[in-house]
Amino acid sequence: MATIGNVIGDKLAWIWKTLTSFRISYIIEILIIAVLVYFMLHWIKQTRAWMLLRGLLIVLLFAIVSYVFQLSVILWIFTNLFSVIVVAILIIFQPELRRALEQLGRRGIAGNIFNGRRSSEESIRESEKVMESVRKAAIELSRTKTGALIVIEKEVMLSEYERTGILIDSKVSSQLLVNIFQKNTPLHDGAVIIRGNRIVAATCYLPLTDNSELSKSLGTRHRAGVGISEVSDSLTVIVSEETGEISIAREGELENGLTQDHLKNELIGFIGIKDKTEGRTGAAQVERKADNEETSDK
Question: Which end of the chain is flanked by fewer CB atoms within 10 Å, N or C?
């Protein structure tokens, strides 16, 4: 019993000593580190650095396996290349790092932390409206055989491509999208980028894919749609100027000849919402039925 009492007494004395030596500066340091880590992870997730980070985690896992099994040659290579890899990452992502610091300076830390977020239901309703506007615009553009390239941003921000176009910052509407892509208008050439419920820019230049498996009959518009899907998690709606055919590009894959229903399912699935048409009653069903009849008449 005496031994147990001594152990408990030592533990209590250690706890008391820790509490009495605790400083308010420790809490401040923890908060500062937490904020920096949060902004770093937030920035990584919104850029192509997120893809690089996943690749680095795989390389790190391979290095751990090499250490466990004592693969000396591989460990020597990792050790000598580590500093080179760090410098290479800084060089490759220098533009993204500069833009991240610029955004932090413009918005401020407090503005980023305490920026109010919309409720999930409101966000879902707005996303549905955006997808419906894109669907209507694509159908109308397909009917008139007007070429279009509509990029819908998801997690990876497309700021570097947004800067190549003309900033618009307008709410998404099918009428505006149709008007933008009308021939012989200043904004019709290039891509439109949609972020959230806003059209952020038009006439944007996108990277072209090098995929040799794509049909040689596909033009620049389709290759640009596939190209942007290879470097981001966006979805691109493409309307062919020659045939009026609607296509989508996602994750480096191109799907041609979409019907109205198929396009709708792809758009709703992209934002992670199941079609609830059957469960809706009243005015919502009447409005959807009228819209379908109007589309079929066209």
Answer: N
pLDDT at site 296: 44
CA distance 240 to 181: 12
**CATH code at 120-275:** 3.40.1700.10
Amino acid at 243: T
CA–CA gap between residue 9 and residue 89 (Å, rounded): 52
* Rounded average pLDDT per 10-residue block, the chain, 298 residues: 68 69 74 81 63 73 81 78 74 66 53 49 83 94 93 86 90 93 87 92 91 84 92 91 92 90 89 50 38 44
How is the chain split into domains, by residue range? 2-113, 120-275
Which alpha helices (H) appear in 193-259, and where do they start and end? 220-230
Q: Where are the alpha helices (DSSP H) in the chain?
A: 2-21, 24-45, 49-68, 72-92, 94-107, 109-113, 120-143, 159-162, 174-180, 220-230, 260-270, 283-297
Q: What are phi and psi of 77, to 5 degrees?
A: -65, -45
Question: What is the pLDDT at residue 160?
Answer: 82
239 neighbors 148 (Cβ within 8 angstroms)? yes
